[in-house]
Amino acid sequence: MSVHAARISTSIIDQAIGWVMDNWILLAIIVGVIVLIFVVLALLPAGKAHQSDDFPADSREANDLALGFIQLQNPMIDWNDPTATEIASSKSSQKALAKQWGLNTRDDWAKNVQRLIGNRRRRTLWQELLGIRAGLATRLGRVPTSKEWLTAIREAGGSGKGDERKFVTGLMHYENKARKSAKKGGLFEAGDLVTSLDGYALGQAVAVCVWSVGMGLITREESAQAIREINAIARAEFDSWAAFGRSYVLGRTMHWSDAEVEDEFETKQTFEMVAFARAMNGDRNGPWGNLAWRE
């Protein structure tokens, strides 16, 4: 490159930088609009849930399978197919699940399910803090503010600082985001309180059973029996599909964010809320909108 050409190139770069500096507000608006478009698209009415015509969507087995709906939709498989036909016919899907979940043998399946329904991804401190808030909410007759919650934590012997404050701040932030995104669907009303994060692990446990059938690790009968037991736990802990769904969404967000407030996890939660809304929309094959929680 000649000296003259280099000077021209440098001049162009300087001009570009100068334009950006002079028009940064315009650029910020453009970027904001693009982000808004993606968010709006994410919140548009969800498409129909993937549902198989080869299996009933209103049977006792279907009701049990529905507990794993959100997890079963990722990867996109028919929620009411207890044999996971799509997984059975896809070596790449089987390979991905084997790598992600360590699912290679029947023993691997059993260990995964026992882990998920045993500790349910619980953290001792988080459980204690959720219990304190639940008790406070009962006394107040409403959802406590973060300040009230922290005060109750200190009264219970905690410090209200460090990991305790981090959890309170994170949970209430993501809860409020969920309320705002679900305000038109009645999925998360102002008075609804998440008292458990167990929904995420229990939903995953059902999915692991279904995937394992498709991978040839267990029989459909073995899966059905395990899923029935998982459902017994969930139906005793939660009182509705909506309560279970809120627990699933917040459980997933808090687990992967480690209670850190970050845009990345807000975005992921937005998509989980879309799946939640789809599950509750009976007109779009959403099983939670069509099946009874208590039979």
Characterization of the model:
The structure is a single chain. The protein has 295 residues and is mostly helical. The chain folds into 2 domains: 3-41; 50-295, no CATH class. Helix content is 66%, strand content 0%. It has helices at 3-22, 24-43, 60-65, 69-72, 85-88, 91-101, 106-118, 124-140, 146-155, 162-182, 199-214, 220-237, 241-257, 263-280. α9 runs antiparallel to α10 and α11 (199-214) runs antiparallel to α12. The longest helix has 21 residues, at 162-182. Mean pLDDT is 89; it is low at 35-45.
SS content category:
mainly alpha
Spatial gap, N to C terminus: 78 Å
Q: What pattern of helices and strands is seen along the backbone?
A: HHHHHHHHHHHHHH
Mean pLDDT: 89
Largest sheet: none
Helical content stands at 55-70%
Low-confidence stretches: 35-45
How many strand units? 0
Q: How large is the count of helical segments?
A: 14
As for the number of domains, it is 2
Query: Which overall shape is indicated by the principal axes computed on the Cα atoms?
Result: globular
The radius of gyration over CA amounts to 23 Å
Amount of beta strand: under 5%
